[in-house]
Amino acid sequence: MDLAAGLKGRHVLVTGASSGLGDHFARLCAAGGAAVTVAARRRDRLDALVAALREAGALRARAVSLDVADPDSVAAAFADLDAPLDVVVNNAGIAESGAAIDLPRDSFDRVIDTNLRGVWAVSTEAARAWRDAGRGGVIVNVASILGLRVAGGVGPYTVSKAAVVQLTQALALEWARYGIRVNALAPGYIGTDINRDFFETEPGRAMLKRIPMRRLGRPEDLDGAFLLLAGDASGWMTGATIPVDGGHLVSSL
Ligand code: NAI
Protein backbone atom coordinates (compact mmCIF):
# COMPACT_ATOMS: atom_id res chain seq x y z
CA MET A 1 0.00 0.00 0.00
CA ASP A 2 1.32 3.44 -0.94
CA LEU A 3 0.65 5.48 2.22
CA ALA A 4 1.57 8.82 0.64
CA ALA A 5 -1.07 8.26 -2.07
CA GLY A 6 -3.68 8.60 0.69
CA LEU A 7 -3.05 12.35 0.71
CA LYS A 8 -3.29 12.98 -3.03
CA GLY A 9 -5.61 15.92 -3.70
CA ARG A 10 -6.36 16.46 -0.01
CA HIS A 11 -6.10 19.86 1.65
CA VAL A 12 -3.89 19.66 4.73
CA LEU A 13 -3.40 22.35 7.39
CA VAL A 14 -0.16 22.08 9.38
CA THR A 15 0.20 24.29 12.46
CA GLY A 16 3.62 25.34 13.72
CA ALA A 17 4.99 24.74 10.23
CA SER A 18 7.68 27.42 10.43
CA SER A 19 10.33 24.95 11.62
CA GLY A 20 11.17 21.41 12.66
CA LEU A 21 8.55 18.70 12.36
CA GLY A 22 5.84 21.02 11.03
CA ASP A 23 8.06 22.12 8.16
CA HIS A 24 8.86 18.46 7.50
CA PHE A 25 5.20 17.32 7.60
CA ALA A 26 4.23 20.13 5.19
CA ARG A 27 6.90 19.02 2.71
CA LEU A 28 5.87 15.37 3.11
CA CYS A 29 2.20 16.15 2.43
CA ALA A 30 3.06 18.29 -0.59
CA ALA A 31 5.30 15.54 -1.97
CA GLY A 32 2.36 13.16 -1.59
CA GLY A 33 0.22 15.37 -3.83
CA ALA A 34 -1.69 17.31 -1.16
CA ALA A 35 -2.59 20.99 -1.19
CA VAL A 36 -0.93 22.42 1.90
CA THR A 37 -1.75 25.40 4.09
CA VAL A 38 1.05 26.15 6.52
CA ALA A 39 0.25 28.12 9.63
CA ALA A 40 2.37 29.72 12.35
CA ARG A 41 3.34 33.11 13.78
CA ARG A 42 6.60 33.63 11.87
CA ARG A 43 5.23 34.74 8.52
CA ASP A 44 8.63 35.25 6.87
CA ARG A 45 9.58 31.63 7.49
CA LEU A 46 6.19 30.42 6.25
CA ASP A 47 6.53 32.46 3.07
CA ALA A 48 9.95 30.88 2.44
CA LEU A 49 8.45 27.42 3.00
CA VAL A 50 5.56 28.15 0.61
CA ALA A 51 8.07 29.23 -2.04
CA ALA A 52 10.02 25.98 -1.51
CA LEU A 53 6.84 23.88 -1.71
CA ARG A 54 5.78 25.57 -4.95
CA GLU A 55 9.27 25.14 -6.36
CA ALA A 56 9.04 21.43 -5.56
CA GLY A 57 5.78 21.22 -7.52
CA ALA A 58 3.18 21.24 -4.74
CA LEU A 59 -0.43 21.00 -5.89
CA ARG A 60 -1.12 24.20 -3.93
CA ALA A 61 0.73 25.87 -1.06
CA ARG A 62 -0.36 28.81 1.04
CA ALA A 63 0.56 30.43 4.35
CA VAL A 64 -1.80 31.78 6.99
CA SER A 65 -0.77 33.64 10.14
CA LEU A 66 -1.78 31.76 13.25
CA ASP A 67 -1.14 31.93 16.97
CA VAL A 68 -2.76 28.75 18.28
CA ALA A 69 -2.75 30.14 21.82
CA ASP A 70 -5.11 32.95 20.78
CA PRO A 71 -8.65 31.74 19.90
CA ASP A 72 -9.31 34.95 17.91
CA SER A 73 -6.25 34.25 15.80
CA VAL A 74 -7.45 30.66 15.25
CA ALA A 75 -10.88 31.89 14.11
CA ALA A 76 -9.26 34.47 11.81
CA ALA A 77 -6.96 31.84 10.27
CA PHE A 78 -9.92 29.56 9.50
CA ALA A 79 -11.81 32.49 7.98
CA ASP A 80 -8.75 33.10 5.78
CA LEU A 81 -8.66 29.55 4.29
CA ASP A 82 -9.11 29.43 0.52
CA ALA A 83 -10.68 25.94 0.40
CA PRO A 84 -12.25 23.41 2.79
CA LEU A 85 -9.79 21.32 4.76
CA ASP A 86 -9.51 17.54 4.74
CA VAL A 87 -6.73 17.06 7.30
CA VAL A 88 -5.56 19.13 10.28
CA VAL A 89 -2.15 18.49 11.81
CA ASN A 90 -1.91 19.97 15.31
CA ASN A 91 1.85 20.26 15.44
CA ALA A 92 2.53 23.68 17.07
CA GLY A 93 4.10 23.23 20.47
CA ILE A 94 6.57 24.70 22.94
CA ALA A 95 8.66 23.28 25.76
CA GLU A 96 9.96 25.13 28.81
CA SER A 97 12.38 23.34 31.04
CA GLY A 98 13.37 23.70 34.65
CA ALA A 99 12.65 22.18 38.02
CA ALA A 100 8.93 22.51 38.80
CA ILE A 101 9.70 24.20 42.10
CA ASP A 102 11.66 26.99 40.40
CA LEU A 103 9.76 27.56 37.15
CA PRO A 104 8.54 31.11 36.56
CA ARG A 105 4.92 31.55 37.57
CA ASP A 106 3.59 31.95 34.03
CA SER A 107 5.54 29.03 32.53
CA PHE A 108 2.78 26.48 33.14
CA ASP A 109 0.12 28.66 31.52
CA ARG A 110 2.30 29.43 28.49
CA VAL A 111 2.91 25.75 27.77
CA ILE A 112 -0.71 24.74 28.37
CA ASP A 113 -2.01 27.65 26.26
CA THR A 114 -0.03 26.51 23.23
CA ASN A 115 0.17 22.73 23.60
CA LEU A 116 -3.31 22.01 24.94
CA ARG A 117 -5.64 24.99 24.49
CA GLY A 118 -4.15 25.42 21.01
CA VAL A 119 -5.02 21.86 20.00
CA TRP A 120 -8.50 22.35 21.45
CA ALA A 121 -9.08 25.65 19.63
CA VAL A 122 -7.86 24.45 16.23
CA SER A 123 -9.62 21.07 16.48
CA THR A 124 -13.00 22.47 17.52
CA GLU A 125 -12.83 25.15 14.82
CA ALA A 126 -12.10 22.49 12.18
CA ALA A 127 -14.75 20.09 13.48
CA ARG A 128 -17.48 22.76 13.47
CA ALA A 129 -16.69 23.57 9.85
CA TRP A 130 -16.75 19.87 8.89
CA ARG A 131 -19.98 19.19 10.77
CA ASP A 132 -21.71 22.25 9.32
CA ALA A 133 -20.64 21.28 5.81
CA GLY A 134 -21.78 17.68 6.34
CA ARG A 135 -18.35 16.30 5.54
CA GLY A 136 -15.81 14.33 7.55
CA GLY A 137 -12.20 15.11 8.29
CA VAL A 138 -9.00 13.86 9.85
CA ILE A 139 -7.07 15.29 12.79
CA VAL A 140 -3.51 14.25 13.63
CA ASN A 141 -2.28 15.56 16.97
CA VAL A 142 1.44 15.66 17.65
CA ALA A 143 1.70 14.51 21.26
CA SER A 144 4.95 13.07 22.68
CA ILE A 145 6.28 10.07 24.55
CA LEU A 146 6.32 12.56 27.44
CA GLY A 147 2.51 12.33 27.32
CA LEU A 148 2.82 8.61 28.11
CA ARG A 149 5.75 8.61 30.57
CA VAL A 150 7.45 11.35 32.56
CA ALA A 151 10.92 12.86 32.68
CA GLY A 152 12.28 15.43 35.12
CA GLY A 153 12.47 19.13 34.39
CA VAL A 154 9.63 19.38 31.87
CA GLY A 155 6.57 19.21 34.14
CA PRO A 156 4.19 21.52 32.25
CA TYR A 157 5.18 19.93 28.93
CA THR A 158 4.51 16.35 30.10
CA VAL A 159 1.17 17.41 31.55
CA SER A 160 0.20 19.18 28.32
CA LYS A 161 1.09 16.19 26.15
CA ALA A 162 -0.69 13.69 28.44
CA ALA A 163 -3.73 15.93 28.10
CA VAL A 164 -3.38 15.86 24.30
CA VAL A 165 -3.44 12.04 24.41
CA GLN A 166 -6.63 12.12 26.48
CA LEU A 167 -8.13 14.91 24.34
CA THR A 168 -7.45 12.77 21.26
CA GLN A 169 -9.62 10.04 22.76
CA ALA A 170 -12.35 12.40 24.00
CA LEU A 171 -12.71 14.11 20.61
CA ALA A 172 -12.52 10.79 18.73
CA LEU A 173 -15.44 9.55 20.80
CA GLU A 174 -17.57 12.64 20.24
CA TRP A 175 -16.78 13.20 16.59
CA ALA A 176 -16.86 9.70 15.06
CA ARG A 177 -20.55 10.35 14.37
CA TYR A 178 -19.55 13.23 12.06
CA GLY A 179 -17.00 11.12 10.17
CA ILE A 180 -14.15 12.94 11.89
CA ARG A 181 -11.21 10.78 12.98
CA VAL A 182 -8.81 12.00 15.65
CA ASN A 183 -5.50 10.24 16.30
CA ALA A 184 -2.13 11.19 17.74
CA LEU A 185 1.51 10.61 17.02
CA ALA A 186 3.78 10.34 20.07
CA PRO A 187 7.31 11.00 18.85
CA GLY A 188 10.35 10.22 20.90
CA TYR A 189 13.28 12.63 20.78
CA ILE A 190 13.80 14.02 17.28
CA GLY A 191 16.56 16.56 16.71
CA THR A 192 14.88 19.98 16.14
CA ASP A 193 15.03 23.55 17.51
CA ILE A 194 12.88 22.51 20.48
CA ASN A 195 15.63 20.31 21.98
CA ARG A 196 18.86 21.14 20.11
CA ASP A 197 20.44 22.82 23.17
CA PHE A 198 19.51 19.94 25.47
CA PHE A 199 21.31 17.33 23.40
CA GLU A 200 24.51 19.39 23.59
CA THR A 201 24.52 18.92 27.38
CA GLU A 202 25.78 15.98 29.44
CA PRO A 203 22.24 14.91 30.54
CA GLY A 204 21.18 15.11 26.90
CA ARG A 205 24.01 12.83 25.77
CA ALA A 206 23.23 10.45 28.65
CA MET A 207 19.61 10.31 27.56
CA LEU A 208 20.58 9.21 24.04
CA LYS A 209 22.29 6.18 25.60
CA ARG A 210 19.01 5.19 27.24
CA ILE A 211 17.15 5.01 23.91
CA PRO A 212 17.21 1.30 23.00
CA MET A 213 18.02 2.12 19.36
CA ARG A 214 20.83 4.42 20.62
CA ARG A 215 20.17 7.43 18.45
CA LEU A 216 18.15 10.60 18.20
CA GLY A 217 15.22 10.37 15.83
CA ARG A 218 15.14 12.15 12.48
CA PRO A 219 11.96 13.86 11.22
CA GLU A 220 11.66 11.27 8.45
CA ASP A 221 11.49 8.49 11.06
CA LEU A 222 7.92 9.71 11.67
CA ASP A 223 6.82 9.50 8.04
CA GLY A 224 5.25 6.02 8.10
CA ALA A 225 3.09 6.63 11.16
CA PHE A 226 2.24 10.18 10.08
CA LEU A 227 1.08 9.13 6.60
CA LEU A 228 -0.87 6.24 8.08
CA LEU A 229 -2.79 8.52 10.44
CA ALA A 230 -3.31 11.35 7.94
CA GLY A 231 -4.57 9.17 5.08
CA ASP A 232 -7.26 6.62 4.34
CA ALA A 233 -5.12 3.62 5.33
CA SER A 234 -6.19 4.38 8.92
CA GLY A 235 -9.85 4.67 7.93
CA TRP A 236 -11.03 2.54 10.86
CA MET A 237 -8.67 4.06 13.44
CA THR A 238 -9.71 6.80 15.79
CA GLY A 239 -8.66 7.74 19.32
CA ALA A 240 -5.29 6.00 18.89
CA THR A 241 -1.86 7.30 19.89
CA ILE A 242 1.12 5.80 18.09
CA PRO A 243 4.57 6.09 19.68
CA VAL A 244 7.53 6.37 17.28
CA ASP A 245 10.56 6.54 19.51
CA GLY A 246 13.36 4.07 18.79
CA GLY A 247 12.03 2.02 21.69
CA HIS A 248 12.39 4.78 24.30
CA LEU A 249 9.06 4.01 25.97
CA VAL A 250 10.14 0.42 26.54
CA SER A 251 13.55 1.38 27.92
CA SER A 252 14.55 -0.72 30.88
CA LEU A 253 13.55 0.30 34.40
P1 NAI B 1 10.03 23.44 16.85
O1 NAI B 1 10.25 24.38 17.97
O2 NAI B 1 10.99 23.43 15.73
O3 NAI B 1 8.58 23.63 16.22
C1 NAI B 1 7.47 24.06 16.92
C2 NAI B 1 6.73 25.00 16.03
O4 NAI B 1 5.52 25.44 16.67
C3 NAI B 1 7.56 26.24 15.71
O5 NAI B 1 7.48 26.48 14.33
C4 NAI B 1 6.88 27.32 16.50
O6 NAI B 1 7.00 28.59 15.92
C5 NAI B 1 5.44 26.82 16.47
N1 NAI B 1 4.64 27.44 17.51
C6 NAI B 1 4.94 27.55 18.82
N2 NAI B 1 3.98 28.23 19.46
C7 NAI B 1 3.04 28.54 18.52
C8 NAI B 1 1.82 29.25 18.55
N3 NAI B 1 1.36 29.78 19.69
N4 NAI B 1 1.11 29.36 17.42
C9 NAI B 1 1.58 28.84 16.26
N5 NAI B 1 2.73 28.18 16.16
C10 NAI B 1 3.46 28.04 17.28
O7 NAI B 1 9.91 22.00 17.51
P2 NAI B 1 9.47 20.61 16.90
O8 NAI B 1 10.34 19.61 17.51
O9 NAI B 1 9.36 20.67 15.44
O10 NAI B 1 8.02 20.45 17.54
C11 NAI B 1 6.84 20.18 16.79
C12 NAI B 1 5.88 19.41 17.67
O11 NAI B 1 6.42 18.13 17.94
C13 NAI B 1 5.61 20.06 19.03
O12 NAI B 1 4.26 19.92 19.38
C14 NAI B 1 6.47 19.24 19.96
O13 NAI B 1 6.02 19.27 21.29
C15 NAI B 1 6.34 17.88 19.33
N6 NAI B 1 7.36 16.92 19.69
C16 NAI B 1 8.67 17.14 19.37
C17 NAI B 1 9.62 16.21 19.72
C18 NAI B 1 11.06 16.40 19.42
O14 NAI B 1 11.87 15.65 19.97
N7 NAI B 1 11.44 17.34 18.57
C19 NAI B 1 9.27 14.98 20.43
C20 NAI B 1 7.87 14.83 20.70
C21 NAI B 1 6.96 15.79 20.32
Summarize the structure.
The protein is an alpha/beta fold and 253 residues long.
Please give a structural write-up:
- Helix content is about 40%, strand content about 15%.
- The chain has about 250 residues and is α/β, with parallel strands linked by helices.
- It has a single domain, classed as Rossmann fold.
- The protein has a seven-stranded parallel beta sheet with strand order 3-2-1-4-5-6-7, with helices on both faces.
- The longest helix is centred in the middle third of the chain and has 27 residues.
- It is globular, with a radius of gyration of 17 Å.
- The model has no long low-confidence stretch (mean pLDDT about 95).
- 1,4-dihydronicotinamide adenine dinucleotide binds next to helix 1 and helix 4.
Summary tags:
single chain, 253 residues, alpha/beta, Rossmann fold, seven-stranded parallel sheet, 7 strands, binds 1,4-dihydronicotinamide adenine dinucleotide
Give the SSE map.
Layout: E1 11-15, H1 20-31, E2 35-40, H2 43-55, E3 60-65, H3 71-79, E4 87-90, H4 107-133, E5 137-142, H5 155-175, E6 180-187, H6 202-210, H7 223-230, E7 241-244
Parallel strand pairs: 1-2, 1-4, 2-3, 4-5, 5-6, 6-7
Bound molecules: 1,4-dihydronicotinamide adenine dinucleotide (NAI).
GO molecular function: oxidoreductase activity, acting on the CH-OH group of donors, NAD or NADP as acceptor
Protein name: SDR family oxidoreductase
Family: Belongs to the short-chain dehydrogenases/reductases (SDR) family.
